[in-house]
Amino acid sequence: MRFIKIITCLLIPGIVIYFLDTGIGTLPPLGKLMDPVHGFMANAESNKTLQSSSIHLNDASIKGNVIMDERLVPHIFADDERSLYYLQGYVTARYRLWQMDIQTRAAAGRLSELFGPKFIDYDKEQRRKGMIYGAEQALYTIKSNPKLEACIQAYTDGVNAFMEIDASTQECGLHYADYPIEFKLLNYQPEAWTPLKTALLLKYMASTLTGFDDDIEMSNLKKLLSETDFNALYPDYTEGIDPIIPSEKKYDFKNASSYTNVTATTPVYFKKVLDIFEEQHAKNQVGSNNWALSGSKTKSGYPLLCNDPHLQLNLPSLWYEIQLHMGDMNCYGVSLPGAPAIVIGFNDYIAWGVTNAQVDVRDWYTITFKDENKSEYQYGNEWKKTTKRVETIQVRGAKTVVDTVIYTHYGPVVYENVPATREQPLKDKVAREGMAMRWLALEKSEEVNTFYLLNRAKNYDEYRDAISYFSCPAQNFIFASQSGDIAITQQGKFPLKSKEQGKFVLNGANPADDYQGYIPFEQNPTIKNPSRGFCASANQHPTDSTYPYYYTSFDFEYYRNRVINSALTNMSGATIKDMQQLQQNNFNLSASEVLPLMLEQLGDPCRTNEKACEKLTALKQWNFENNVADLAPTYYQIWWDTLYNLMWDEMNDSTIAYVKPNLYFSIKAMHTFPGNHPLFDNKITTEKNETLSDLVLQSFNAMIAITDSLALADKNVLQWYQHKHTNIMHISQIPAFSKLMVKNGGYRNIVNATSETHGPSWRMIVELSSPVNAKGIYPGGQSGNPGSKYYDNFVEDWAAGNYYTLLHFPNLETAKKSALFTLTFN
Amino acid sequence: MKSILIIISGIILCFILQSYLPIWWLFVVCTFVIGYLAKLSSGWKTFFAAWIIVFITWIALYIAKDVANESIMSNKMANLFSMKSNYWLFGIVSAVMGILGGLTAVAGYYLSKKNTA
């Protein structure tokens, strides 16, 4: 009897401990996690982590000091390049290790390894898009540049030194207690960093910024709409555009016209062929603003440069603030955790920033294989050979998935056995057809070199040289120097295209549809010291229509640029304060251009109920500012969204790939199309032909009903920021680690572009005085650890529109005076 | 009096082991030995003494770290596990661990009885 009691009393805890130690299903090992010393509480940072220390590395050649300031920004002082980038890697890993790990795994399509079969499709998508292939191409170029290779290797070694990676086994030497909390929760181990991971991270950015196109959708629309409607709703160019390069610029390129040749591509009709992946329609969320004022327009007489890239807002933040000091290079700005150097910033001489070019650099080619082996495909009169790349996707808790991706000279055949590339596919033909993707992100390039050189650049010429290495994702590089120059260049590698080439799906069998070369670097849109005294970009058209080369976009922007340009044109004696106000500008230009029309079409305001009348009055009195606590922006947005969906209900057929007209051309159509245009008619109702004013009334009534029901429990939910509900989510989407409903105004297509998920991910203002005077802030914190007070400590200030003074120390001695603590490497 | 002494010395022992060794379940070995050596008057008494030892050890370790961290981490974890507050999280986990410790202590207690019998 006693024996049984003893066994029972040991067995029950034994079994429980076993499961708590190993984890059940997707649950992490809770026992280990809950350990009050080595589990999650080991990530509960105390002030002890803020003490100075001296770190002895295995690599004795690494020497330097990292001064951490009050906001936990590292200021790295080193005497040689290897030490500098080594320490950048080390300190970034110390604060952002999990983020670096998960972002590069996501880029490489390796999430099934961690999260099991539900991520197989995602991983396949990444592999088929050629993410690893593209990173390998980038690495290939990097290796041909010894300086760059050394820089990336130093960074890699620094990251691995922090992880105590064993040189022979490549195992991580960190103890469980030292792991970032996410490794504990998701139950996996950190792995060694490699130069390929850095390349993957940059491809991840390229994908975020250029991984879009509407070629299939446009091909369908061209077929489905009348020519007049198509040209009115999806033009490449239109009147009233305020381009990046002002019209004073003349394009007198010799031979420019001889580059282009006309091909005739007949658009084919595509059903929704996206058998592998659904395109992420986040494209009208990414964007950015940047501008530079020459000294003639500023109060101080020094140039001012501003930049705010609008990207997905996450915790840990995409950006990591840092100062890099070595010899006469003294650079400050934001870096990407996982890549050496500073991406957006300034040094003692110049400042620079970027916005996305939005020019389409991804095209689709239909491929006809010779037979089902798919080892040859048609190209003119010949058969070209394919290469095959085997992608192995490991899956947690399931069998490994192997996917063979076929590569043509265009790029990977993303879609194979396309079920319906023609309206009536011939059955035997299907197995011989595919769609290859030509994407500039997959070509050899060395973007890191641009940042490496910009960090060191001292003047305009060095800026131009630095950016010449940048091919994808094409960016509008804004520039200002202490010597008084300002400039902007749309830099990237752009294919030479005939008119409308690449707007629709191309025929891979026709050599005339192939790329014929690239626009030479000097002929990319650029301007230095324009007479208007400022350069600016906000993802709009780069040039006016006199630019001799054809380009199209997956999504140009039509509103922010006009607000910024008009503000800057009218500005004189500008100060940093003025720049802050412009970055925070909440003016909703699109609403100001459509709401009066909507109100006019609505007619008699009070024919419905009293509450409707109240809301209508609010809309009529609205100053078009999307301010935090206002109600009118909420009424407007719900009304507009409903109206927009009613207008383009023809395109709701989920079996066909469409893209609805963008905001600008939708509003334009409302102004220019007759009210009884067939596209305005509601497809669901057959008995009546709706006109625009019918839709306006319907959507208005819907808005009243929606807002009434939303406000039933709490009237405050109609305040703009509550309705918009900006969430800064933890990368793994854990709400407990996120900042929910951040109190900020603005919206898409507004200068302060804070939407539900995206927004100004880094606001920077640099005055090119001597010494440089700079302000900046991003919605996050320097530490990636949710258990640190530095995890999200900038968010409130960011939302309130505050800025921090960026401490650009001239030397180590000065930096030491402002140190919170110091890490000494010797 | 004896039980209080046992509890105090048990807490000290568990506290030291748990702090320095990265094996979260080491306390059950500790309570097993205590149950064996303490020779308390009943199985229930042994269970409760061990429960108190483990509960207090874990709570103390949690709170020591939590105060220095101003509850930043624990509040997020409590939220993640849908608990009302960090103290609920500490309490529930420590109580469950206490039960595990209590059971092994009882095993130790019966083992000691067998030996004396």
Characterization of the model:
The complex is a heterodimer of chains A (826) and B (117). With 826 residues, chain A is of the alpha+beta class. Chain A is built from 25 helices and 29 strands. In chain A, helix 3 crosses helix 7, helix 14 (447-456) runs antiparallel to helix 15 and helix 18 packs parallel to helix 21 (663-672). Chain A is globular and about 85 Å long. Chain B has 117 residues and is an all-alpha fold. Chain B is built from 5 helices and no strands. Chain B has helices at 2-20, 26-38, 43-68, 72-80, 86-116. The longest helix of chain B is centred in the C-terminal third of the chain and has 31 residues, at 86-116. The model of chain B has no long low-confidence stretch (mean pLDDT 91). The chains are: A alpha+beta (826), B mainly alpha (117). The interface between A and B is large, with 43 and 34 residues.
Overall outline of chain A: globular
Number of strands of chain A: 29
Rg of Cα set of chain B: 15 Å
Strand/helix succession of chain B: HHHHH
Low-confidence stretches of chain A: 271-281, 419-428
- How many individual helices of chain B? 5
Largest sheet of chain A: 11 strands, mixed
Helical content of chain A (DSSP H or I, runs of 4+): 25-40%
Average of the residue pLDDT scores of chain B: 91
Tally of separate helices of chain A: 25
Oligomer: heterodimer
Helix content bin of chain B:
over 70%
What spatial order of strands do you see in the largest sheet of chain A? 1-29-2-3-7-8-9-10-18-19-21
User: Which structural category do the helix and sheet elements of chain B fall into?
Assistant: mainly alpha
Overall pLDDT metric of chain A: 91
What attributes does this structure have?
heterodimer, A: 826 residues, alpha+beta, 11-stranded mixed β-sheet, 7-stranded antiparallel β-sheet, 25 helices, 18% strand, B: 117 residues, mainly alpha, 5 helices, 0% strand, elongated
